[in-house]
Amino acid sequence: MASIFTKIIQGEIPCYKIAEDDQFFAFLDINPNTAGHTLCVPKKEVDKIFDLDEQTYMDLMAFSRRVAIGIKKVVDCKRIGMSVVGLEVPHTHVHLIPLNAMNDVTFQTKVKLTEEEFQDIASKIRAAL
Ligand code: AMP
Prior knowledge:
The chain is an alpha+beta fold.
């Protein structure tokens, strides 16, 4: 069965899209640690990141870097953190998380954004890429 992220990539489930190329797709995390929290996902559905072939892994890092640089331009934060977890969704994804404090990277505290706030931040990041 297709993962929830494959369904997002295929447009069956809505998302706040940030970027896409032939191999990868980026969209806002629906339950963000901080505003601007973005997921970068290979279109190829592989559960664990270190099971990706080496070239896809390297390309995912390059794609994530490009998105992270865009996020940093528009989100007020000290830096962009990168995490890979995968305990909830078994389809490789890189979390890009705007950080101001250590707590922002723990996944223990979340922010609630309105529909308008999600739309606004997504369009600003898209414009910064
Ligand atoms: P993990 O698999 O533990 O790395 O976490 C999966 C992440 O995907 C969580 O941060 C969720 O909030 C996020 N997530 C799950 N479903 C969606 C969705 N439909 N749209 C955006 N983000 C999602």
